[in-house]
Amino acid sequence: MDCSRIKHLLEKYLEGESSLNEEELLRKYFTENKIIPLELEYAKPMFCAFKSEQNVQVKKEFTNRAKLYSIFGIAASIVIMFGLVFFNFNTNNKVNYITKCNENNKVLKIELSDGNLIWLNKGTIITYPNKTKKLKNIVKIEGEAFIEILNPKRTHYNIEAFNALIKTETICAFNIKANKYAENVNITVKLGGVKVMENSVENGLALLVTNGNYCSVHKTHKLVFASANKDDNYLAWKTGNLIFNSLPMATVSDVLSEYYNINVELKNSNIAYCEFTGQFSNKPIEYVLSKIKTELNIDIYNSKDLITLSGDKCLSNFNLKQ
Amino acid sequence: MSNKNISFSKNIRDKHFRFALRLLENYEDAQDVVQDVYEKIWKKKNMLYEYKSVDGLAMKITKDLCYDRLKQRKRKLDNYNESNYVFVNTTNNYDEKDLVETVKELINYLPQKQKVIIHLRDIEGCEFEEIATVMGIDITAVRMNLSRARKTIKEQIIKIKDYGL
pTM for the full model? Predict the structure, then answer.
C-alpha cells in the first residue's frame, strides 16, 4: 500500500470520518509493517495498543451467586440474633461508674466486682465500673495505682491515664504512675503483659509490654517507649520495702524524697556517685538516714522539711568518679 | 424470535468485560458488572424480540451499570477532563513497548465520553450507530468525540517522542 494513501486514511481516521473497513486496513498496516515512514510513526503505538487491548479476557468463571446470597442471608441473620441478645444483655445490666479519691495517707485497696484488685497510692483519683463486663471495662486513673487482674474470666480492661491507654487481655499485674505534673505516664509490668498505646493517635501501634519491662508514654510528645525495668523500688509505695542494690546516692536521694515525701538534697557532687546497698522494710526516715550515715560516713543535716547530705568522700567507694 | 438464543459466546462476553473494565478500571468490579448484565438480560428473556440486537442491549446495560457504580464510588473521573496530563519520562528513551503501554494509559485518562467511544470503536470495532445507541447521543457527536480522543492521543505521543512533525 502506498504511503500517500495511508496518510490520507490516517487523516480521515483522526477526523472520525473513516469506516470500519478503512480502520481495519490501517490497523493491519501499522501492526504488521515494520518499516513505517517517520512522519506516520506516531500511529503505530496507537494501533498496537488497540490490538493488544482486544485480547483482554475474563479470567475466572462466574460464581453461582444465588447460593452465595443464601449463605450471606443465614450469616447475617445469625449476626443480628447475636446482636439482639447482646444488646438486651447490656441494657439490662447498666453499668455505673464510681469515682474515688484516696485522700488518706495510706494505701487504699479496691476490690472490683469480679475480684480483681487495685491499690491506690495517696492522692490518686480513680473511676471504675460498679459491675464488670466480659469485654471492655473502662478504668481511669490519675496518680499512682497497682492493678492486679487475676480473675481469668474478667481480663478485658481499658485503663486510661492521661494520654496513655492500657489494654489488658490476659492475667496480669502492673503499676501505673500517672502524676499530674510529671512529663510521662509510666507503666511497669510485674506479671503477664499489657498493650500500651498513645490515646490521641487513632489506630496507632500498640506496644506489648511484658513482665519485667516498663513503658513510658510522653504526655506532650505523644511518644511511647519501652525498656527493661531497672527500678527495684517502683512498688515501694505499696509494699513499704526499699531496696538499694549498690545504687548511687543521687538515685537513693530521689527514691527517698519520693517515698517519704520530703526534700533530700546533695550538697556536693562528690557523694552523688557513692554507692549504697541496703534494704528497709517500713522503717522511718530517721532510721534509713542513720544507716546511710554510718555506712558511707557522710554528714546529714535534718531540718524541718529539707534533708541535706554532705561529705568529701565515702567509705564504700574508692574509685570516685569526679 | 422469542426463542432467541441468549447464551453469549466467550468472545462476546469478553467484549462486555473489556468495556466494563475500561470504565471501572477494576478487575473484580468489571466481572461483577458483567454478571449483573447477564442477570438482567436473563430476566428480560421473554421480551428480547423487542430489541434490535441483544449484544447492543447488553452493551447499553453494561454502560448504565458501570455509570451507576462510578456514581456510587463518587470517583471524580471527570477531574481528568481537559486537564493537562503530563507524562514525565526520565529516560527520554521510549521504545515501542513503552509507547504501547502509554497509549493504553492515555485512553484511561481521556474524558469519560471520549474514553468510552474510542474503546467501542477502536478496540471493539463497533459501528457508529451502535455506539450512538449505547451512549444515547447522535452519530455526529460520536464522530466528534472520537476525533477529539484520537487527536489527543496522537498529540501526546508526538509530545513524548518529540518528533515535532
Answer: 0.47
